[in-house]
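HOLO CASE FILE
Compound: adenosine-5'-triphosphate
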Amino acid sequence: MTTTSPALEIRGLRKSYGEKEAVKGIDLTIQPGEFYGLLGPNGAGKTTTLKMVVGLLTPTSGNISVFGVDNQRDPVAAKRQTAWLPDEPMLYDKLTPLEYLEFVAGLWGIDARTAASRADELLTRLELHEHRNERCEGFSRGMKQKAALAGALIHDPRLLILDEPLTGLDAAIARQVKDLLAERARAGCTIILTTHIMEVAERLVDRIGIIQHGQLLAEGTLAELRQKHGRDGASLEELFLDLVSGKAVAA
Ligand SMILES: Nc1ncnc2c1ncn2[C@@H]1O[C@H](COP(=O)(O)OP(=O)(O)OP(=O)(O)O)[C@@H](O)[C@H]1O
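Model generated. Tokens follow.
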């Protein structure tokens, strides 16, 4: 591992489920501190790609390095630096958020004092502090999502990967989550998220990758995407729809 390594480097990544090839040779480099949005239609291969990055799926071929650590050669070291928030996070419903965070911190081997202070900070930041001793089973979807996000952040990961983190959240909770992510990004955390909400990608992320049929169709900042595709002033939604429908030529 070196300090100059990209936060994430993917080379020639492929994944087949039986006969079906879901990811067809993706190359992607994300630099430390970048906030990256992965967009694509349903079934494009976003979740499959990210699950390979976090070590939940084994690639059919290709390489993935997290801060210079090959995630197949040294999966534990790669995972230590990474957090994964799936689209349907699993919480232990019988635990309170505080117990859940203590439990997750314990899995990472974080000492009790550090865990308690991080849990306190995260629960306060996400406005869950007053519910810290209530069981998660009575929580709304948004509260559960926030507790799961706190769990993902408890080991202070350098790379945070979130699959559809804002789906199904009301406006107030979505704002809290977006603000926390923007804050983490400003503090230097590398963040990758998938979303179908174009406004989120447009406002929150630095760089966008569009995946379709298991391949990276286009990549860049919004300004770069507009320029590359000759669509001055176009919204991300317009660009996205033109690219995936083939009206704009991918570059
Ligand atoms: N466990 C699995 N077994 C077989 N096929 C799968 C499996 N998981 C995903 N697929 C298929 O692989 C392709 C890519 O799926 P994936 O979930 O990665 O897409 P996605 O871009 O995340 O989609 P969405 O936006 O709908 O979440 C799809 O055709 C999907 O049906």
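CASE NOTES: Residues 17, 20, 22, 40, 42-48 surround adenosine-5'-triphosphate (CB under 6 Å). The beta strands are 8-17, 20-30, 35-39, 61-66, 69-70, 82-85, 159-163, 190-194, 207-212, 215-220.
CLOSED: yes
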